[in-house]
UniProtKB/TrEMBL annotation:
Keyword Endoplasmic reticulum set for record: yes
PANTHER family membership: LD25575P (PTHR44140)
Entry keywords, A to Z: Coiled coil, Endoplasmic reticulum, Signal, TPR repeat
The TPR repeat ranges on this chain: 123-156
Subcellular location: Endoplasmic reticulum
SMART domains in alphabetical order: DnaJ, TPR
Protein known as: J domain-containing protein
One of the Pfam families matching this protein, by short name: DnaJ
Record's keyword annotation contains Coiled coil: yes
Region (Disordered): 244-265
Main location: endoplasmic reticulum
Length: 299
């Protein structure tokens, strides 16, 4: 005979919820409902915890899939729902820092600072903050974040690579900036890039001009616009460009680590852990305990 301890299960579920373990809380309250699907108190708590647990799970999935805008929206909903619980605030702001760095860098800076303050010795929010600064073209500040990571983890090769990328970005100087050619943000998505290309290609097509000098200038602009489209719509070439290497410049390809399959397929892959986010929290996990039994399943 199965012991009917619904009240105890509910207490455990509420405790788990209050300390930031929404997924574990959901498991416990489901155990209660298995004993009695009509238990009023368990059903009420189930509705509350399921909503939050699903938000966190969906935000994680969106981040894994690099659906940054969706992730950011879901993360802000977590904060709206549980803005008075410091554990969920940390989880929400960790996601805002990571996902917002790619689509709303200026607005995500506060979240990164909050996570850095709470996380102590974790390197991961520093990587996200460096990403914020790169997308804002504040390369000195990005460099400082990578150096801070190396203070925390002297042999962190991804931080070392980050410093090299920042150096390349600084050295690029007056060379072609494909984002500026198309007039889009560094965080622009495929739809925005294609739209900008169509508008500029139509306005600058050489066939629109009869004057020889104007036609020649248009040909140069049109070539730049096409190159910008090619680079920014190709994941590998865009990754090279974001690391300070112009994939359309033969001279820049000399010594290019991307060309030899170095594994740096994305400029954002500067994380150190084995979990889905690559987080390494140095034994402090804001999403759960025991190294991966709850929301974020860290390795």
């Amino acid at each position: 005979m199965v012991s009917d301890n619904r009240a105890g299960m509910l207490r455990v579920s509420i405790l788990m919820y209050n300390v930031g373990l929404a997924a574990r809380s959901l498991e416990e309250v489901r155990n209660c409902l298995r004993l009695d699907p009509d238990d009023k108190d368990c059903r009420e708590h189930y509705g509350k915890v399921k909503k939050l647990a699903n938000l966190i799970s969906d935000a994680q999935t969106s981040a894994d899939d690099e659906k940054w805008e969706k992730c950011l929206s879901l993360s802000n909903r977590i904060l709206d729902l549980e803005g008075n619980n410091s554990d969920y605030v940390l989880q929400g702001k960790t996601l805002v820092c990571r996902c917002g760095a790619r689509v709303q860098p200026a607005e995500s800076l506060e979240a990164c600072d909050y996570v850095i303050k709470r996380m102590g010795q974790s390197v991961d929010p520093h990587f996200d903050k460096a990403e914020v600064y790169i997308n804002l073209e504040k390369y000195d500040e990005a460099e400082a974040e990578y150096r801070r990571i190396l203070e925390l983890e002297q042999n962190n090769h991804k931080a070392t690579q980050g410093l090299k990328n920042v150096k390349n970005l600084k050295a690029r100087g007056k060379k072609r900036d494909y984002y500026k050619i198309l007039g889009v943000r560094r965080t622009a998505n495929e739809k925005e890039i294609k739209q900008a290309y169509r508008e500029l290609a139509g306005k600058n097509h050489p066939d629109r001009y009869t004057d020889e000098a104007e036609k020649k200038a248009a040909e140069k602009r049109f070539l730049d616009i096409n190159d910008a489209r090619d680079v920014l719509l190709d994941k590998n070439m865009r990754a090279q460009f974001d690391s300070g290497i112009d994939p359309k410049d033969p001279e820049a390809q000399a010594g290019n680590p991307f060309g030899s399959g170095s594994g740096f397929g994305s400029p954002h892959q500067f994380f150190t852990g084995s979990g889905p986010f690559g987080f390494n929290f140095h034994n402090f996990d804001p999403f759960g305990a025991d190294g991966g039994h709850f929301e974020f399943h860290f390795g």
